[in-house]
Amino acid sequence: MRRGLKITLVSVTGAALTLSASACGGKKADSGDDGDGKKTVKVGLAFDIGGRGDQSFNDSAAAGLDKAKKDLNVQTEEISAKPDEPDADKESRLRLMANKGYQMIIGVGFAYTNAVVKVAKDFPNTKFLVVDADQCKVSGPNVLGACFAEAQGSYLVGAAAALKSKTGTIGFIGGVNVPLIQRFQAGYDAGAKKAKPGIKILPAKYLTQPPNFDGFKNPALGTEAAKGQLDAGADVIYHAAGGAGIGVIKTVAGAGKWAIGVDSDQYNLPAVADAKEKILTSMIKRVDLAVFDFVEGVGKGSFQSGTKQYDLKNDGVGYSVSGGKVDDVKAKLDELKAQIVAGEIQVPTKP
């Protein structure tokens, strides 16, 4: 995509999209006129718990929004979620942006699914994206759900963990015990067993149970869980715990063992700069790609409702090689990736 390209919104039928879409109750949304007669394309993004700066899932979404702002010349707004908030708060947040004339609105995280689907019905001229659509299901002609094959990417880092372990014992720490995070665990366990059938995988540790979502944002919880798995003999630990995973990485690295990051390439994160040499790899989840694809697609008039899957086949998930820590096992990991893409390996999605 060339820099400086300003997108012009069109509908999927090719006709010009009216930017002053009617809002709920018959009111008209802000027209988005930038003062010189041109219509400003506006994109609103509502973060999951932790928001921008979580060094993980939300930051990946933020990277996609930043790229859209830079490459597509759109105006953006961000709003963060509150811990343990009801769905009504999410709806209010989305309606606020829709009423302000944001032609594209993004809800980051599976918890936004119901709110997005409900609000989208009242704003038919606004396009909505929910990242990590719950159970990969959405409804509505103006709603897109981005889904990720987390289990596939986790399979590869699980194989890396088993191949690099010297004690023969590895661990997994999940943020909150929900089906989404269980997919990370399922893939990780399966990949480790495939690469080294005799590997010992400690019982998975989940930091919190819903409706308590502190397991995605409290590093102290990650620290304590990591200590427990280290004491049990693990020398490679994979976390899928969002901001709480920073505590996992620092604790594991401090013990001289291998940590595996999640969502973004955590080797490059400032928050764990002092631990980076003990980050074996990260399971990459291209939330940034989903966000950018959505904005670009609406701008080009190629938006399609329903769901879009990001997996190993389209590089929507994968593993990082920063630091060269998995160079010696990369050939094996890529062989496993090819087998998954070809359908020769079916990766489980439940532990």
From TrEMBL:
Membrane topology: Lipid-anchor
Subcellular location: Cell membrane
Residues spanning the signal sequence: 1-23
Presence of the UniProt keyword Membrane in the record: yes
Pfam families on file: Bmp
Stretches of the chain forming a coiled coil according to its record: none
This protein's UniProt keywords: Cell membrane, Lipoprotein, Membrane, Signal
PROSITE patterns: PROKAR_LIPOPROTEIN
Family statement: Belongs to the BMP lipoprotein family.
Name of the protein in question: BMP family protein
